Each structure stands twice: as structure tokens, then as C-alpha cells.
Amino acid sequence: MEGTERFCINKSGFWKVLIVDDDNFIHRMLKEINKDLTFEDKGIEFYSAYTSQEAVNILKRNEDIALVLLDVFLEEKDSGLGLAKYIREDMKNTDIRIVLMTGKGSSSLQDEIILNYDINGYENKTDLFSKKMNTVILSSLRSFRDINRIKNNRESMEKVVSSISKLYEKDALNDFLISSLCHLSSLINQCKGRDECNINSFAAVRQGETHIFNIVGGTGKYKDSINKKIRETVSETDLIKANKIYNGGDHELFDNCYIARYKSTAGNEAIIFIENDDNVDYVDMELLDVFHKSISATFDNLCLNLEIEATQKEILYTLGEVTEARSEETGSHVKRVSKYCKLLAEEYGLSQRDTMLLTHASPIHDIGKVAVPDNILLKPGKLTSEEFNVVKTHTTIGYNLLKNSKREILKAASIVAHEHHERYDGKGYPRGLKGEEIHIYGRIAAIADVFDALGSPRVYKKAWVINDILKYFKEESGKHFDPNLVDILFDNLDKFLEIKEKYSDENAKVIGQASDNNNES
């Protein structure tokens, strides 16, 4: 026989208490005496179990039970003690409070049980039918609450620290803020254990040089507010609070919400807004301050790293364009190669980090050509074998220029420069690598470079038409190129052609002319 009885309906929920006793009189008396008992504005929800197995079933279905009032002599002499041991050792539940009840007084037995079992109280049943019961239940609930707060705060801090590992992922700034939003909410609202956080909260980032903040992620009623402005989303009262923090505050826990502002030395700014799920008297302000400082420091470091990476990317594009300009080719070639590499990397399944590195390293795949003499590099006719051997050195020269850098992008660029002329069948240069001996960066860059080179005019040839280019790739699949990547090229041909058109040399000239005209006006 199992049952549940609910008292004191309260919007904040209930504290769950499990009574385990084979005497129904005990259940009825405990529920009746404590039916009006509340703790922190929450009533008590009593669950009844009359055997050890019933108790186990209820505990498995209700992991948030706070207190078990357990008969020592349930069913058999040691059944209650066995259940207490099962809860601690088999269910690994050290949070729940266990108070043993007995109708047989024995100080020696009590001493033995308290010493050998992980329990939190040992009471005579006759005493429980008095006001003492209120003390037993309230002290147990308070202990359960404090244990869970400590655990929740520790777990939240660990999650905030672990979120630093996301610094180098795609859209890392937004990802970091959204992750921090969830961890802060778990601290403020004690929402541990929820599969999905339904607290109303959002993270927003300042747009450019304006004072406008757009939401980049949210939960609860703000879940669908991405890209909306803060001032269009929150109430007038909450907007006043947000402006207070923005205009000189740091972070503050208001009566109904928590608002924090983050500003980096690179000029980036963000705001986190979290509504309070309940009263905030229990929030550990010192720990919240530690959280805030940790997030602020990480936010600043992340923004600086992103600024450095953006500068590196710009320099690499510029170097790539300079290299191509020397061989009388447009800078659009390096843009197209970069876009092709990105598309191939994504469709191949490379990680976001690897895709980013290859995308921004590929523009300087021919950086070694700076050492190739003009009379060879710009020769309109066919190269002699000796001249071609000189051209081939650009792969090794480019590698040697970049290989000693400690920057990830330049390390990736050294691989691309070194291996983009290797062939899948092992007949390429400079090392004659074969198959997957060639780094995936090199295999991808080979397809991107050749696809664009064949379709573009050079001093020594005219541009090929698309049908001839596709025929060549079919013939060279498994020979010159990785067959899996060739399949990706054909499966996404429309996307390749879209890139080819968008970044065509003709479009680049039109854009350049428009810029010149604007400068004259």
C-alpha cells in the first residue's frame, strides 16, 4: 500500500517527506500533527511507504525527497537499518536526511546505531507526537536545504570555470555568455536538476559603437528574443535597472532580477539579465561576486583573443593578396579559396576550430612564391623542367617561413603551404605523400586551389569552362584528389558556383570602381 497526501498548497512547491512505517496509525498521526507546518513558505508533501521496497520505489521516483522518517524495526528487526544503508551506499544519496523512529527505548542500541549508520536523528515515536516533531522536521529540512545549496554552488562554479574551454569555438563570445547565463541562474535560482532551465533570462551584446544591446541567447520567455534589442524586450521598470548597471554599475541583485555588465579592455560590452525564481535571501553574495569576477576576467581575455585573431586573419588575407598580386592575379583568388576550404571543411565534418583555422590559413597557401624570380613566376609560356623545379620550391619555402610560429593559425598555414600540391596517389610534391598521409588541410586546400585556378585566367592559360573542370575532377578523383572530398564538391556544386560568382574578379573590379567613384564625390 502506497499513498501521497498534500497539504498547504503553495506556488513555490513543497518539501517532500517520506514516512516509512508498517503502522498506518503512525502515518495518520504524523500527517495530521504537521499538516500546517511550513518552512520558507513551502508546505510539506508527505509520502507513505509501509515496506522497504515501497520506500525504495518512491525514492527512485522522487529524487528530491528531503527527509525520511524511518521505523527502525520495519518488517523485521533490522529492516529499517538495512534501508538506511541502502539509501546511502546503493542509491548514493548523501543529501537526504534520515531520522530513525523507534517505539522501543534502548540507549545501548541507540548509541550503536548512531555510531555505525549514517543517520541524522534517532527519536522515540512517543516524542514525535508533540511539538518536538516540528523541531525534528524543520532542522532536517534546513540541513537538506543547506547541503544542496553548497553542492549546487560548487557545481555551478565548476561549470563556470569549465566554460573557459569554449573560448576557441565558433561564436565563442556568444557561447560563453549563454553558458555563463545558465550557470549564474543555477546559483541564483537553485535550479539544479532541471533538464532545461525555464528561468526568464538573457544575455545581450553591444552592437558596434552604438549603445544598443541585442540579445544573443535567452531562456524562459526570452528564449525567442534572439537579435531583439533589450529596450524592446524588458519592462520599463527592468530597463531602468539595466540602465543603472550600464551607466556605472557592475552587478546587482535586485528584488526581482539579477543584472550584470561585462566590459573588456578591447571595447566589447555585454549584459546578463536573470529574473529571480523565488526570494533571494539565501543567495550567497560572496560566491555570486566571485562568479561575476571570474566571468568578467574570462570575458576580457576572450575579447582580447578574438581581437588578436581578427588582426591575424586580416594580415593573412593581406599577405595572400600581395602574393597573388605579384603573380598578376587578383586578391579574389585567395578569398574564393578560403571560402571553398570553409565549405569543404564543414561538409567533411571538421570541428569548428579546425574549420576556422583552415579558412583563415588558406589565403597564404602560396606565400612561398615571394622567393620565386619574376622571370619564372610571370613567364607566359610553358616552363622548362628546371624552371618548374624552382616553382615547386615555393611549398617548402612557405613551410619554412611559417613552421616555427607558435600561433595556431600560422601553424595551420605552414601545413597548407607545404602540402597543397601533394597528390592523393603519392605523385605530388614536395614530399610525395600519399592518401591520408597528407594532412586534411592539404587535401582540402588542393581541391579549393585547383578548382579556382582552372576556372581563372593566368598568364600562361585561359580560364576553363565549368564542364571541363568537372570532367577533370572526375578523372582525378583518387589520383590527384581525395575521392571523398571530390564527392563533397559535386554534392555541393551549387554552393561552389555561388561562391565563384559572388567573389568573381569582375565583381571585385565593379566594387573597386564604385569605391573610387565614392572617393571622388
Description:
There is one protein chain. By secondary structure, the protein is of the alpha/beta class. The chain is elongated, with a radius of gyration of 34 Å. It has a 6-stranded mixed sheet. A 5-stranded antiparallel sheet has the order 8-7-11-10-9, with helices on both faces. The chain folds into 3 domains: 3-151, Response regulator (Rossmann fold, 3-Layer(aba) Sandwich), CATH 3.40.50.2300; 167-303, GAF domain (Beta-Lactamase, 2-Layer Sandwich), CATH 3.30.450.40; 327-520, Hypothetical protein af1432. It contains 18 helices and 11 strands. The N and C termini lie far apart (89 Å). 51% of the residues lie in helices and 12% in strands. Mean pLDDT is 83; it is low at 1-12 and 508-521.
Rough outline: elongated
Strands of the widest sheet, in order across it, are: 1-3-2-4-5-6
Query: What is the number of beta strands?
Result: 11
CATH class division of the largest domain:
Mainly Alpha
> Helix/strand/pairing class, anyone?
alpha/beta
Identify low-pLDDT runs: 1-12, 508-521
Percent range for helical residues? Answer: 40-55%
Taken together, the total number of domains comes to 3
Q: How far is the N terminus from the C terminus?
A: 89 Å
In CATH terms, what is the fold-level topology of the largest domain?
A: Hypothetical protein af1432
What is the second-level CATH architecture of the largest domain?
A: Orthogonal Bundle
Strand/helix succession: EEHEHEHEHEHHEEHEEEHHHHHHHHHHH
Strand portion, in percent? 5-15%
Average predicted confidence as pLDDT: 83
CATH superfamily of the largest domain: Hypothetical protein af1432
Largest pleated sheet: 6 strands, mixed
Rg from Cα? 34 Å
InterPro entries: CheY-like_superfamily, Cyclic_di-GMP/3'3'-cGAMP_PDE, DUF3369, HD/PDEase_dom, HD_GYP_dom, Sig_transdc_resp-reg_receiver
Domain HD-GYP: 308-505
Modified residues (4-aspartylphosphate): 71
Domain Response regulatory: 16-140
